[in-house]
Amino acid sequence: MAELVIVEDERAAGELVAGSIVSLIRRKPDAVLGLATGSTPLATYRALAGRIAEGSIDVRGVRGFALDEYVGLPAGHPESYRSVITREVVEPLGLTPELVRVPNGDPEQIQHAGADYEAAIVAAGGIDIQILGIGRTGHIGFNEPGSSLASLTRVKTLTAPTRADNARFFDSPDDVPMHCITQGIGTILRARHLVLLAFGEAKAEAIAAAVEGPVTASQPGSAVQLHPHTTVIVDEAAAARL
Ligand code: GLP
């Protein structure tokens, strides 16, 4: 059963999630965070940076695993998720860069990148709290409709709507990579706590399907219903179809 929290706005959601993460880090200074990219978690990262700047939490031992990465962007490309996670999470929070991993989207190493990532998560003792956004198509991470609910980290092809949504970050829509490497739905379900965030009416349908629809591979977000500890935090607009 998912717990559903409807908040006033993204800022309130960010404060709420940041509060949970701060308590987690106080209990477990080497906590393992599951990090999402996209605009949805930004308020959480901002609130968390504010709490950390107050100075009473030591985050040097905090570890992190990003959900996904594009395949084939040159190292250091500003829109690679490695760059995004560095810019939006590692630097503002003051995390130790070596302790934050992103799947390896280098085509030369892609054959073993999924298995390596899974092994690294297991070696870290698993993810304590996984932050999730949701795509218009219902994807979580880059697990598009049709992804197996048992899937592990692997290469996937991006759908046309997802490439179109992400085109805003690139000079031309053609520059959006065709492939990605993403934690699987099975990987995500192994995290100890899932926090699914969504804001705005464009997400209302995906949220209704995730929270109240049948659990099905055609709505990857619905997999959160299989998890014993899921918190869904949405604003009124994203809750409109519930
Ligand atoms: C991207 C990411 C997802 C993210 C989603 C929603 O494609 N791979 O992890 O949840 O799209 O993005 P946004 O939060 O910007 O709406």
TrEMBL record:
Entry superkingdom: Bacteria
Activity regulation (record text): Allosterically activated by N-acetylglucosamine 6-phosphate (GlcNAc6P).
Catalytic center residues: 68 (proton acceptor), 139 (proton acceptor), 144 (for ring-opening step)
Major enzyme class: hydrolase
Catalytic reaction equation(s): alpha-D-glucosamine 6-phosphate + H2O = beta-D-fructose 6-phosphate + NH4(+)
InterPro entries per UniProt: Glc/Gal-6P_isomerase, Glucosamine6P_isomerase, NagB/RpiA_transferase-like
EC annotation from Swiss-Prot or TrEMBL: 3.5.99.6
Domain Glucosamine/galactosamine-6-phosphate isomerase, chain residue ranges per copy: 11-227
Keywords in alphabetical order: Allosteric enzyme, Carbohydrate metabolism, Hydrolase
Site feature: Part of the allosteric site: 147, 154, 156-157
Pathway connected to this protein: Amino-sugar metabolism; N-acetylneuraminate degradation; D-fructose 6-phosphate from N-acetylneuraminate: step 5/5
One Pfam family linked to the record: Glucosamine_iso
Gene3D superfamilies recorded: 3.40.50.1360
Function: Catalyzes the reversible isomerization-deamination of glucosamine 6-phosphate (GlcN6P) to form fructose 6-phosphate (Fru6P) and ammonium ion.
Protein family (similarity comment): Belongs to the glucosamine/galactosamine-6-phosphate isomerase family. NagB subfamily.
Name assigned to this protein: Glucosamine-6-phosphate deaminase
Gene that produces this protein: nagB
